[in-house]
Amino acid sequence: EFVKMSMVQAAEYYIKNIDPTATVMDIVNEVNSLVQDFYFNEVIKKAGIEDFLKFLKEKNVKMCIATATDKHLVEKALERNAIREYFTEIFTCGSVGAGKDTPVIYDVALEHLGTPKENTFVFEDALYAIETANKAGYNIVGINDISEKADPENVKKLCNYYINDYSEIYKYFE
Q: 68 and 6 in contact (C-beta within 8 Å)?
């Protein structure tokens, strides 16, 4: 159940179904403390991403992030991996008030970028989020990710493009 929820949605579900004495902030803080070390010290950038981001920046492509992860965790991982500079903003499910089970976060990011939807691409690795972006009419680049347990063939059917790492993307974006 939790996979398709934002952190706040998952906390609310937990309170409703498991522990009515807990608070949303207590749960969010606890989960963040459990994953903080991973984001602060272990997350590594995907192969080829920095070169691809440089390529896009040289072409004046606007870029931002739409994520279910809390902003301070994402910022730390981006900074440690020396790629924060490429993104004008980081939108989180918490900041927009909706999980990736609705297109709200993608719509907010699109508005921020100010680009036409048909010229905007969502790079996504989670099947449920790919399904959401697909239903909302976004162009999608599916990214193979070890944490995504979904059948890659199902993911590929919903995406305009599918890559295992960013070194493969150039054949689509030259």
A: yes
Taking the C-alpha atoms of residue 49 and residue 35, their distance in angstroms, rounded to an integer, is: 23
Contacting residues for 82 by C-beta, under 8 A, at least 6 apart:
50
Question: Radius of gyration over alpha carbons of the chain, in Å?
Answer: 16
Q: Counting beta carbons within 10 angstroms of the beta carbon of residue 117, is it exposed (0 to 12), middle (13 to 18) or buried (19 or more)?
A: middle
* Nearest-angstrom CA–CA distance, 106 and 87: 15
Residue 123, both tokens = 């790079």
Q: Greater confidence, 147 or 56?
A: 56
34-37 contacts, C-beta under 8 A, 24 or more apart:
35/69, 35/73, 36/73
User: Looking at per-residue confidence, does 149 or 172 come out higher?
Assistant: 172
Q: Which residues, other chains included, contact 31 with Cβ-Cβ below 8 Å and sequence gap of 6+? A: 7, 10, 11
CA nearest to 78, candidates 101, 46, 112? 46
Location of structure tokens 């970028």: 113
Q: In the Cβ-directed half-sphere of 159, how many Cα atoms lie within 13 Å?
A: 24
What does the pLDDT average to over 113-122?
96
**Summary mean pLDDT of the chain:** 89
SS3 category, 158? helix
